[in-house]
Amino acid sequence: MHNPSTRCVRRYGLCATIVAAGLVLAGCAPEPAPQPGAQAYQDYCAICHGQSAMGDGELARALAVPPPDLTRISARNGGVFPLRAVADSVYGYAGKHDRDLMPEFTALLDGPQTVLTDAEGRPQQVPQRLAEMLMYLQSLQR
To answer: Is the Cα torsion angle 12, 15, 21, 24 positive or negative in sign?
Structure first.
């Protein structure tokens, strides 16, 4: 006849082993790939806008005009992410630097073109790297 307390200890021991094995395997899982555009954001934008895009980057206090919180773009625009306006601000256009504190990133984000659809359903042709950054910024909206 089996001792009930031994059976209970074995059962809990088996459960603990299964849980520990699951934790070990979870730790071995590869990290998810970073979202496209996230690295470009970190490389070009985070110094002013901050790691979390809330306008608190290393250079933010040194700027005459503080960088905006990029997680609130949609909130500042009636809940709609203004794709074309953000693309123009990030990518730049001729003469932009004369009227705006935001530097132009045209040369850094230029390349093969792709098409994004804005909130009104209109196609917008933009460079692929810019499209990835726009989608990343859109994913940060709160």
So the answer is: negative
